[in-house]
Specification:
- Helix 6 crosses helix 8.
- Strand 8, helix 12 and strand 9 form a beta-alpha-beta unit.
- With 519 residues, the protein is of the alpha/beta class.
- It is elongated and about 85 Å long.
- It is 31% helix and 21% strand.
- The chain starts with a strand and ends with a helix.
- The protein contains 17 helices and 14 strands.
Length: 519
């Protein structure tokens, strides 16, 4: 898969300025890893008069098949003909578009720290793509690129040069000539290459709308083939296409009126809706956990007792968390979490950030070592009190993350739940519910035993009499402690009674948080 970008220049404005714009030195060949192969950037020619940058993408067809199981990932429309032998390694497609975005990120954004004046200057550009799948033929290629200021040459390639009677294939040799900024050219290619192929190698989700609008800023709203571009780019998903079309129409109206989109889209006055809606406790709890993790700078996080994956889902939305691992003893809970996270349709980059596996928290597990933080959210109250030392050893003594976040119900607050009968716990599986002083005593004891400091935070409304509905302890490992707890304490799995531990999926009052989250 091959693409070249060329420009011409003079001694006053040398063509080799292309190297500054692409952030790639003309004197070096560079190699970049992609999710499905290797990208090479090199310059076949580099002089003051003419400079050409080439992107060669080597696609691993085996990796493409193995990572692309399922609808919408892995493939070419013809992939069913032969899994490992198809046009994907050779024909420009979404694979090349993603490589362009990854290798030339700054150039596509119009950024150049070394020469900040360069990105805004139009250049005489020539783009050549030797093999471009064009579903719609050369006429569609011209109708997509010509309105953007390109002079288009789209030469249909024969099915077989030895048998001209067979006619033309669906591929063309594309040559574009025009005077544009490099950022504009890259954004055109990023959007239109997969549009012409009419296929993507990854699952198209809601965030593709934002990608399309970012890359299409300044040209897509007024493009005569906007509907075709939007529909094909979003894999003909009707709901996504409609959302993109509505937003593009607002952009068009704003440009016609020489105003901002916010000034056009003002039919709803949010300031008139003054009624405050109570925030569900489950939502407040997740927000408090995320805030605590931010305070410690954690990047690799364990969600111990992850249940149905609500916290894992929240952490995935934050790019600061580079690896999230959900652990639960319940296979059913992990199955539900996998469905909630749409692991089978997740992009390669996102899928690399998350893992789910089965495990019991009262047994040491080597897989849990080496992480920045561990979270026990509404977990400890499901453990029989005699088993708490084993859990503390497994987490604080054996895994020893730098940070541990523990939340648990505050039993004092139960009197504020009108639907909770007096003397009842909030969930039928709770083995206990602690007062604030009981939780503090346990947390400070564990912290002292395993070399951590601990601070306490309220979660939810902090009642002046009974405290918050949920209490949170934030443990930080002391810098000078490397021991794993009391060496005289043994935790032998052969002599312990195994108790399955998983998170309460309720909201603290016996109600199902899955319904709350959906609402």
């Amino acid at each position: 898969m091959f693409l070249t970008i060329s420009t011409t220049g003079t001694s006053e404005r040398p063509a080799t300025d292309l190297g500054f714009l692409l952030h790639k030195h003309p004197g070096r060949a560079q190699v970049f890893s992609t999710s499905h192969g290797t990208a090479h950037v090199f310059y076949p020619e580099a002089s003051a008069e003419r400079c050409t940058a080439a992107l060669l993408l080597e696609v691993d067809p085996v990796a493409l098949v193995r990572r692309g199981k399922g609808k919408g990932r892995g493939g070419a429309p013809d992939a069913t003909l032969a899994q490992y032998v198809n046009d994907r390694p050779y024909a420009a497609s979404s694979l090349l578009a993603v490589a362009l975005s990854g290798v030339f990120t700054s150039a596509m954004k119009g950024q150049c720290k070394a020469r900040p004046e360069l990105p805004a200057l139009p250049l005489p550009l020539r783009v050549e793509v030797p093999t471009l799948p064009a579903r719609g033929g050369a006429d569609l290629v011209r109708s997509l690129f010509a309105p953007l200021g390109w002079t288009v040459a789209a030469e249909p390639l024969p099915l077989d040069e030895r048998f001209p009677e067979w006619g033309a294939s669906r591929y063309v040799r594309l040559v574009l000539d025009g005077t544009l900024t490099l950022a504009e050219a890259l954004r055109h290619l990023y959007v239109l290459l997969p549009v012409l192929d009419d296929s993507k190698h990854y699952w198209v989700s809601e965030d593709e709308v934002d990608k399309l609008l970012r890359a299409g800023e300044g040209w897509l709203a007024a493009h005569p083939e906007q509907k075709v571009i939007t529909s094909r780019y979003l894999a003909r998903r009707w709901s996504l296409t409609r959302a993109a079309t509505e937003r593009l129409e607002l952009v068009r109206l704003a440009e016609a009126d020489d105003s901002e989109v916010e000034d056009i889209d003002n039919a709803v006055d949010e300031s008139t809706d003054t009624e405050e809606k109570p925030v569900p406790l489950a939502v407040s709890r997740r927000a408090a956990i995320v805030a605590a993790l931010h305070d410690t700078g954690a990047g690799r996080v364990l969600d111990l007792g992850c249940g149905q994956g609500q916290l894992v889902q929240a952490l995935l939305k934050d790019a600061r968390f580079t690896e999230i691992v959900g652990v639960d003893v319940s296979v059913r809970a992990l199955t539900i979490a996998s469905r909630r996270l749409h692991l089978d349709r997740m992009s390669e980059r996102q899928a690399a950030r998350v893992k789910l596996f089965q495990g019991s928290l009262t047994y040491t597990d080597r897989r849990l070592a080496g992480y920045d933080a561990a979270v026990l959210s509404e977990v400890i109250e499901h453990v029989d009190p005699p088993r708490l030392p084993a859990l503390a050893y497994a987490v604080f003594g054996a895994a020893r993350p730098a940070t541990v976040v523990v939340t648990t119900p505050n039993v004092e607050y139960n009197v504020r739940w009108e639907s909770l009968p007096a003397g009842h716990v909030r969930h039928g599986d709770h083995r206990f519910e602690w007062r604030r002083d009981e939780f503090r005593t346990w947390a400070e004891t564990v912290a002292g035993q395993y070399g951590y400091t601990v601070e306490f935070r309220p979660v939810g409304p902090d009642d002046p009499e009974v405290g918050p509905p949920t209490q949170l302890a934030l443990f930080r490992k002391a810098a000078d402690t490397d021991t794993a707890g009391d060496p005289g304490t043994t935790h032998d799995a052969d002599h312990d009674t195994h108790h399955p531990i998983h998170r309460d999926t309720g909201n603290g009052t016996g109600r199902d948080t899955a319904k709350e989250d959906a609402a």
